[in-house]
Design goal:
Chain A: This is DNA modification/repair radical SAM protein. The complex is a heterodimer. Chain A is an alpha/beta fold. Chain A has helices at residues 3-14, 86-98, 115-132, 149-158, 171-177, 183-206, 231-245, 273-288, 293-296, 310-317, 331-334, 342-351, 359-365, 369-372, 390-397, 422-430; strands spanning 45-46, 52-53, 55-59, 104-108, 138-142, 161-163, 218-224, 249-254, 324-325, 376-377. Chain A has two domains: 3-218, TIM Barrel (Alpha-Beta Barrel); 305-433, no CATH class. In chain A, 39% of the residues lie in helices and 9% in strands. In chain A, strands 3-4-5-6-7-8 form a six-stranded parallel sheet. The radius of gyration of chain A is 27 Å and the shape is globular. Chain B is of the alpha/beta class. Chain B has three domains: 8-127, no CATH class; 136-203, no CATH class; 207-258, no CATH class. In chain B, the strands form two sheets. In chain B, strands 4-5-6-7-8 form a five-stranded mixed sheet, with helices on one face. In chain B, strands 2-1-3 form a three-stranded parallel sheet, covered by helices on one side. The chains are: A alpha/beta, B alpha/beta.
């Protein structure tokens, strides 16, 4: 098989993996080696679905012994199968990297023979890259659930970031859709990675040249919309993963129907992109805005409001805390104003050191006031000319795409067929027309 | 601060030249109504003052910046100089005057007109440099790598360190076409060097190069999920002005090596 065809098959099989970030570790270049990493990550291009492409995201092979119902690479699916040889993949990575197409490699794999064998194959690629080609760029590798802990250890030393996919948000869903995987088999490597990262952080204090274990941390992803789990369950799980497993990121992937199966949504359903978007918004609120999952959702309201974003929804339910005075409010409260983000808060804090901020000043800083204007005062004053009408507020607070859903606009035409009304008929009959 | 005087400064377009304009503005106690660099200059009715670039004067101004404003001020001003703001010279002069008047507070006065305009221009510069760190594409010619970029702002000084760190063992050249500036590095040099160059003529790419371009294009096509197609989101993140220089958006005919004719024939309609 020609290399292009192979690459396309294995990239196509890997495309449902969401994570393509090259972030989390700063490592300068070293003479004699190739590459560096930057902690904010670099996007090298954006695919037709608008997602960042930062790493060469491929599977080692798409042969798989498992039969997970939601996966394109399941054993019973009839798709072309192929595999990279370690040398082939390493050469491809180096040549793409030099031309600045990518920031590094994202390596995952279907399970051939058994998890250990698969893991060894992946280690081989990373060894060629790191030892033989002196590759110093970013490597994200999937830990294979069920592989021996010594192999996971080796992977962690060679890679920057590791991830284990949690796949589905509840044990029950996992049992029905992925009978070969269990909660334990997924959580065991996750725990091991967490513990090793912690141990490593003490090692590098003691020994300067101790090898770093997965310096960019670990991440995971789960599929949204393939099972009846609620947003509340998902967000709660996410929060738990951040707290208990010290994950850097939890990714959500809207389920794209790949199989006709009575256990799954039908093939015609569209991926729940808005739901995925709301979950990411909430995920940001957890990580950067000091929110907790229980503030955003609870058992009574287990799903996000599709019309307004989670922060705005929270604010509307806590109107007693508003309006917030921009010039005196603490950082934590500024972060909770709808429409004001981390960057704007930072600028507000800087600017108010030198003088009071007015609405005009806020605009100059670059804060977007469309939603925020309803929740803030500047120097004790509300925004000038702000009319609080139900209609106007709704239009500003609803997120994009829903603004016009209430009214039906239409292009008027001189020549459209006139509607004959009852009145016209009556006029005709009485001779008025 | 003096009112705007009816005078136009004309300088040579270098950073040192701009610092000399600042010097002149203080020495003559006047605020020019416009500062032009040599290229932009259009005849005007205002009296024109030609500002000679004097390195000693420029140095005096530069040294005074951290003392009179703040330690970070020289960097802000240099970055402001790299932006594509149409009146960056006047903006920087106003900023320096504000800084000397207000001291270190000036860099925090985000609601001030001058400061907010300058910071906005710098934000765009930094955003573009972040974009280009990812969107530069090198082509390999006989083991040496060349990339041509067309940025709005002069981003090369901001991104060159990243590429020196990334490719310490490679020889490479990045050419900024609109600003006619090149950056050349070869291993053994500690830092690369900037070159002033008009244009570059590249040889036709080798077979191996074409093969990798083809592979990258193939990968790029395979990685998008058809069911989630979102060209609007793609355009927001990757504006169309970058695309002519991106390998994955080339027209296929400029990309493909000459293929044997039977492959092409396969796609033709059957002949009668």
């Amino acid at each position: 098989m020609d290399l292009l065809e192979k690459l396309q098959i294995l990239a196509d099989s890997a495309k449902y993996d969401v994570a393509c970030t090259s972030s989390g570790v700063d490592r300068g270049g070293v003479s004699g080696k190739l590459g560096n990493t930057i902690s904010c990550g670099i996007c090298h291009t954006f695919s037709s679905d608008g997602r960042c492409v930062s790493l060469l995201k491929v599977l080692m092979t798409n042969y798989c012994i498992y039969n997970c119902q939601y996966c394109v690479n399941r054993r019973t699916n009839d798709v072309p199968r192929t595999a990279f040889s370690p040398r082939e993949l390493a050469d491809l990575t180096i040549n793409f990297y030099k031309r600045n197409y990518i920031e590094g490699l994202f390596l995952s794999s279907g399970i051939i023979k058994n998890p250990d064998y698969t893991c060894e194959k992946m280690i081989k690629v990373l060894q060629i890259l790191r030892r033989e080609y002196q590759f110093n760029g970013y490597i994200h590798v999937k830990a294979i659930p069920g592989a021996d802990s010594a192999l996971i250890e080796q992977l962690g030393i060679l890679a920057d970031r590791m991830s284990v996919n949690i796949e589905l948000p509840s044990q029950q869903s996992l049992r029905t859709l992925a009978p070969d995987k269990s909660k334990e088999s997924i959580l065991t490597p996750m725990k091991q990675i967490r513990n090793r990262i912690y141990e490593n952080s003490t090692e590098i204090v003691k020994y300067r040249y101790a090898p770093r274990f997965a310096p960019a941390g670990q991440s995971t992803q789960m599929i949204v919309g393939a099972t009846p789990d609620t947003d509340y369950q998902i967000l709660h799980l996410t929060e738990g993963l951040y707290k208990n497993y010290r994950l850097k990121r939890v990714f959500f992937s809207a389920y794209v129907p790949v199989a006709d199966n009575p256990l799954l949504p039908s093939v015609d359903t569209k991926p729940p992109l808005l739901r995925e978007h709301r979950l990411y918004q909430a995920d940001w609120l957890l990580r950067f805005y000091g929110f907790e999952a229980k503030e955003l959702l609870d058992e009574k309201n287990p799903n996000f409001n599709p019309l307004v974003d989670p922060k705005c929804n929270w604010a509307l339910n806590h109107l007693e805390l508003f309006p917030v005075e921009i010039n005196t409010a603490p950082r934590e409260m500024l972060l909770r104003i709808p429409g004001i983000g981390v960057a704007s808060v930072k600028k507000i804090l800087t600017a108010r050191r030198t003088g009071t901020i007015t609405f005009e000043g806020l605009r100059k800083i670059g804060a977007v006031l469309k939603r925020a204007q309803y929740f803030i005062t500047c120097n004790g004053k509300l925004a000038q000319g702000l009319k609080i009408t139900q209609d106007g507020m709704l239009r500003c607070l609803l997120s994009g795409g829903f603004e016009h859903s209430q009214e039906n606009y239409e292009q008027l035409s001189l020549f459209s067929p006139a509607q004959v009304t009852q009145e016209d008929v009556r006029k005709c009959l009485t001779g008025q027309m | 601060m003096p009112d705007r005087s009816n005078v136009v400064y004309l300088y040579d377009g270098t950073f040192e030249g701009l610092l000399c304009c600042v010097f002149e503005s203080y020495a003559a106690k006047e605020l020019p109504i416009q500062i032009y660099c040599g290229e932009q200059f259009a005849p005007t009715l205002y009296p024109v003052k030609l500002i000679e670039t004097d390195l000693a004067k420029a140095r005096r101004v530069y040294i005074s910046l951290p003392k009179n404003i703040s330690a970070g001020a020289p960097e802000i001003i240099f970055r402001g100089f790299l932006t594509c703001h149409p009146q960056k010279e006047l903006l920087l002069l106003d900023f320096i005057r504000l800084g000397i008047q207000e001291g270190s507070r000036a860099v925090h006065m985000l609601t001030h007109d001058t400061v907010s305009q300058l910071y906005d221009a710098i934000r765009r510069l930094i955003q573009e440099s972040r974009h280009l760190m990812g969107f530069i594409r090198f082509s390999v010619y006989d083991g040496k790598m060349v990339s041509v970029i067309e940025p709005k702002n002069c981003v090369l000084p901001l991104i060159c360190d990243h590429f020196v760190s990334r490719l310490p063992e490679e020889t490479f050249l990045i050419f900024d076409k609109p600003h006619k500036l090149g950056f050349f590095y070869h291993p053994g040099q500690k830092q690369g060097e900037f070159l002033s160059m008009d244009d570059i003529v590249l040889p036709s790419p080798e077979d191996q190069e074409l093969e990798y371009r083809r592979l990258w294009r193939g990968f790029f096509q395979a990685i998008g999920i058809q069911e989630r197609l979102n060209p609007c989101c793609q355009r927001n993140h990757l504006p169309k002005r970058f695309r002519p220089r991106l390998t994955e958006f080339y027209e296929p005919e400029t990309l493909l090596p000459a293929e044997p004719p039977h492959v092409l024939l396969k796609h033709r309609p059957p002949q009668e």
